[in-house]
Design goal:
It is built from eleven helices and seven strands. By secondary structure, the chain is an alpha/beta fold. It has two domains: 1-32; 33-251, Vaccinia Virus protein VP39 (Rossmann fold), CATH 3.40.50.150. A seven-stranded mixed β-sheet has the order 3-2-1-4-5-7-6. The chain is globular.
Length: 254
């Protein structure tokens, strides 16, 4: 009787030892990066977006950010929704993207552009959020996996926005370990926020100071949009050379 019990225990232990490696493999599969190039190459994306791809390098941006299926993401100043759509395609049907814009930005720049894009099947998991930048987070958007703020932080420097309050609320909305990925057009050293409206640029060090003051910790920096030939003193929309742009990844400490 005792020997029978011992045999069963030995067999059970052996099976458990065999089963142990399966769990890490399953977790690795769940965390595996999607095919970002295939997402960008989707045949139903618009020709206008493909033109924008040439300067924005979206596959590299999505990879740098680490966007994964199932994530819940807030896209700050979504504007016409170029980045929002790419995020929505990447997080897939099990994820969600909140696309934030203020009423003033919609009235002045977006109008019906976002609503037109929102009709696309790829946008089914997107919620359009119309809220001021001082208070951009809807009540239901808690414990976010990621916030993106692409090429628009400079805009809020010349709007009546309490940026410190905005940054604190972004920090609070992320889950511990969540990420803020932010990119913008580079200004010259010493320009700070003074050229936000005229050149549509911001000094990288100034942005870093403001973001880090809210508690964010920088974890990565991308160099794939840097262009040394840009003198950084020309308005972004009139520059004859590619614009120098910085890309930063921050994390909310665990």
């Amino acid at each position: 009787m005792t020997q029978s019990i011992l045999r069963r225990v030995a067999i059970g232990t052996a099976l458990a030892a065999v089963a142990l490696p399966v769990a890490p493999c399953a977790r690795a599969q769940e965390a595996a990066a999607p095919d970002y190039a295939a997402i960008v190459a989707a045949p139903d994306r618009s020709d206008a977006d493909r033109q924008t791809d040439q300067r924005r390098q979206p596959a590299r941006m999505l990879a740098f950010a680490g966007v994964r299926p199932g994530m819940t993401i807030l896209d700050m100043e979504a504007n016409a929704g170029y980045s929002t759509e790419l995020l929505a395609r990447t997080v897939g049907p099990t994820g969600k993207v909140y696309a934030q814009d203020s009423a003033a930005v919609i009235e002045r720049f977006v109008k019906d552009k976002f609503d037109t894009r929102a009709q696309k099947p790829a946008m089914k998991n997107v919620v359009h959020v119309v809220r001021d930048f001082d208070d951009p987070i809807p009540p239901e958007a808690a414990n976010l996996d990621m916030i993106t703020f692409f090429f628009a932080y400079h805009d809020v420097t010349y709007m009546p926005v309490d940026r410190a309050a905005m940054n604190r609320k972004m920090f609070a909305a992320l889950k511990p370990g969540g990420f803020l990925v932010i990119a913008d057009h580079s200004a010259k050293q010493g320009d700070g926020t003074s050229v936000g409206k005229t050149l549509h640029r911001i000094e990288e060090s100034t942005l870093k100071q403001e973001i880090e003051a809210a508690g964010f910790r920088q974890v990565a920096e991308g160099d794939f949009l840097h262009h040394a030939e840009d003198p950084r003193d020309i308005p972004v929309f009139k520059a004859p050379v590619p614009i120098d742009e910085f890309v930063l990844k921050y994390q909310k400490p665990q």
